[in-house]
Amino acid sequence: MNRVLMLLVFCVLSTTSRAQVPAENSLLWEISGRGLAKPSYLFGTIHLICPTDFSLSDSLKSTMSRTQQVALEMDMDDPGMMAGMMKTMNMAAGNELKKLVTEQEYQRLDRFFKDSVHVGLAMFERAKPFVLMGPLFNTVLDCQPQSYEMALVELAGKQKSEVIGIETLEEQMAIFDTIPYKDQAKMLLNLIDSLPSARKEFRSLIALYKAQNINELYGMTLKSEFGMEGNEEVMLFARNQKWIPRIRRIASAKPTFFAVGAAHLGGEKGVIALLRKEGFTVRAVK
Known about the structure:
The chain is an alpha/beta fold. The chain has helices at residues 2-20, 58-65, 81-88, 103-116, 133-141, 148-158, 169-178, 181-193, 195-210, 214-223, 232-253, 271-277, and strands at residues 28-32, 40-45, 69-72, 162-165, 256-261, 281-284.
């Protein structure tokens, strides 16, 4: 009898958990309920994208105009961000890239950076290897990419809305101290050695993003061999959980337009499901 009851409880909990997962294909969501005087909104971004695939819908602009501030993963409007990046981008304990790879691998990386980024590795010698992924995105995308975050900062400026961060630059950069530097270096080498595969994967991600299919995008991001696989707990799940009380506090103070990477939205451990578990009503905005 006890086993039957436990099985029933497990089934109810599993069904409830699945019910929180967003079913609709949408990048834009309204957050209401739980005592909020006015709704806030949640938008899924893709951090870098080719101009031909970039779009800010009229619905998004109209929704944003009904809020009083914009909350990004980090405060991209902070004039001290570049100085903060310079302070936090280096590896701990005097590590250097040359100590993480063989001499042959280092030369291959250096040659690739000189050919593709037009900068040698010397200036990045102590940088966390994940930081080096950034300059390579132009090569992966084969275009001069645009940033949704910077476009949202510009829109916020036009409507005189404050831009804030859900987490600090220090918190975000500290994530890359929890993933072994050697593993990061292997991912970097894997990226430059598998550019056709990386481009194919990114095209698929862009297609899912444009289709606003956040659950498929979430699933594909978890399986990516270029950064997320094996690191989902520290890069997605733990951050999502940490963000929920912050989103609750920020939204309670004033109506806010939240914008985070779209991979954070889907799944049972995504921001939408977690907000629903907290008692908020989160519905798709078309």
